[in-house]
Design brief:
GO terms for molecular function: kynurenine-oxoglutarate transaminase activity; pyridoxal phosphate binding. Keywords: Aminotransferase, Pyridoxal phosphate, Transferase. Its cofactor is pyridoxal 5'-phosphate. The chain is an alpha/beta fold. The protein folds into two domains: about 10-35 and about 280-370, Aspartate Aminotransferase, domain 1; about 50-270, Aspartate Aminotransferase, domain 2. The protein contains 14 helices and 13 strands. Helix 8 (about 175-185) links the parallel strand 5 and strand 6. The relative contact order is 0.17. The model has no long low-confidence stretch (mean pLDDT about 100). Bound molecules: 4'-deoxy-4'-aminopyridoxal-5'-phosphate and glutamine (GLN). The site of glutamine (GLN) has 5 residues, from loops.
């Protein structure tokens, strides 16, 4: 009877619940634990007294659309028309769901690269379409042989995620050139690019799809203020897409939510006048480096982390347990919650790696690392 018979409760819900239940330090679900910028909380407090509590236009608060247009221009030198090519969504999750619902038809195939974030497959299945899961290479670079083999006349969309959750990997210019070559052959395929961590990058430069002239006229780019302004619970994100795609996306959006949370949109719009996203990478790089240093003497082997606020660690030299059991034991015996990487694979591939979120204040990172060094 179920429309999603193989879909279960998300691992983020499971691990966060377990962290609360056992009073563990929660490095599982990705969210910051430090206070939101006071300038933003002041804006929202003052807005509460103003008349900003009713429906906004379906596409979003016009000044916010304009400011996102300026952000895209400033960050990537791409000019977009705010009123026709940007849509404010209830987080990137709704952005992605809406795009898939609007674009994908019965029996279409959508390529997903594993390990992958969990919100892509369900909307594909609800469209009676097929999710074609293709594993990345062992170093999490795209495997172009496998990807090319996965493309067919049924392919409608490929979903990519840069910087990548959970591995922090970032595609290179050569990766994009390979995709562009494939796109020359498969002219009807749409690219859905999940770039929610676009501003959280370190030594490696993030190549936005906005900058790819051969791709952007067929691309839908999803982003989220949750990540960029440390406000994951506000659930305000946005899509950028060419008008002919956006017209279809808006048809779904207007009946899924119609319009998004008014006071948060206005607050973000005003806040964008005060802040820049330029410091975000440096801010999280310091946290990444600190967390890695704290774990230097642990038995975990830390994988490279080029972006996002996630650190993947191998526990292969510590235990043979599967990663779900290992994460559960980590909560019960050491009081630290993490995410098993197998949950990002369709086939549950267990590579003995887990993911820690380092978007935490230093005290939390220190206490978590102290416990992890005892493992
Ligand atoms: N994509 C990725 C890769 C994510 O990590 C997340 C959230 N952690 C989302 C999409 C969803 O973002 P939002 O919370 O804005 O819905
Ligand atoms: N994106 C967050 C993560 O990767 C989780 C958000 C959620 O719980 N759905 O941890």
């Amino acid at each position: 009877m179920s429309k999603l018979p193989n879909t279960s409760t998300s691992i983020f819900t499971i691990m966060s619940k377990m962290a609360t239940e056992y009073n563990a330090i929660n490095l599982s679900q990705g969210f910051p634990n430090f206070p939101v910028d006071q300038r933003l909380t002041k804006i929202i407090a003052s807005l509460a007294k103003k008349n900003v509590h009713q429906y906004l236009p379906m596409s979003g608060y016009p000044p916010l659309l304009q400011k996102i247009g300026s952000l895209v221009l400033k960050s990537y030198q791409r000019t977009v028309q705010p009123e026709n090519e940007i849509l404010i969504t209830a987080g990137a999750t709704q952005a992605i769901f809406t795009t898939i619902m609007a674009m994908v038809k019965t029996n279409n195939e959508v390529i997903i690269l594993d390990p992958s974030y969990d919100c892509y497959e369900a909307p594909i299945l609800l469209c009676n379409a097929i999710a074609v899961r293709v594993d990345l290479n062992d170093d999490y670079t795209p495997n172009w042989n496998r990807i090319e083999k996965a493309f067919s006349s049924k392919t409608k969309m490929i979903i990519i995620n840069n910087p990548h959750n959970p591995t922090g990997k970032i595609w290179t210019n050569t990766d994009f050139e390979s995709l562009e070559k494939l796109f020359e052959k498969y002219l009807d395929v749409i690219l859905l690019s999940d770039e929610v961590y676009e501003f959280i990058t370190f030594e490696q430069h993030h190549i936005a799809v906005h900058t790819r002239k051969k791709l952007r006229h067929r691309s839908v780019v999803a982003s989220s203020f949750g990540k960029s302004f440390h406000i994951t619970g506000w659930k305000v994100g946005y899509l950028v897409a060419p008008e002919y795609l956006m017209l279809e996306i808006k048809k779904v959006h207007q009946f899924l939510v119609f319009s998004v949370n008014s006071i948060c949109q206005v607050a973000i719009s005003e806040y964008l006048d005060l802040v820049s996203v330029n410091q975000l990478g440096a801010f999280y790089q310091e946290k990444r480096d600190y967390f890695r240093k704290l774990l230097e003497n642990s038995r975990f082997k830390l994988l490279p982390c080029e972006g996002t606020y996630f650190q993947v660690a191998s526990y292969a030299s510590i235990s043979d347990e599967n990663d779900v059991d290992f994460c559960k034991r980590l909560v019960l015996e050491y009081g630290v919650a993490a995410i098993p990487i197998s949950s990002f694979y369709a086939n549950g591939k267990d590579i003995k790696c887990i993911r820690f979120c380092f978007a935490k204040d230093n005290k939390t990172l220190e206490e978590a690392a102290k416990r992890l060094c005892m493992v």
